[in-house]
Amino acid sequence: MAMKIRLARGGSKKRPFYSIVAADSRMARDGRFIEKLGTYNPLLPKDSEDRVKMDMDRVKHWLSHGAQPTDRIQRMLEAAGVLQKKARSNPQKAVPGKAAQDRAAAKAAKAGKPAEEAASE
Questions:
Q1: What would the mean pLDDT of 4-23 be, rounded to a whole number?
Q2: CATH superfamily, with its number, for domain 3-80
């Protein structure tokens, strides 16, 4: 059975509140879970201690039994010092989109500069 530590959404419309749960990966996001491990309230300020609450002993138990945390949970566990920080690299994210490149080229042509110099400004 493939286990995941993930978020299960609760709360009303436009007022999200999440439970951190250990669940079978085949179950629905808000469906059946095995154990509730904590809560996450994204509406609270980032420096609030009540924003993320987790039972670290149970989280470590599930990680030792092979449960895989989702990306968001992994970031929370990295912030708590439970997991090692994972190197993330997305070089495509820094590249401007096609429309922005076209605007930079048009601006450079209007100013009389080569397009590469205008894109670097």
A1: 94
A2: Ribosomal protein S16 (3.30.1320.10)
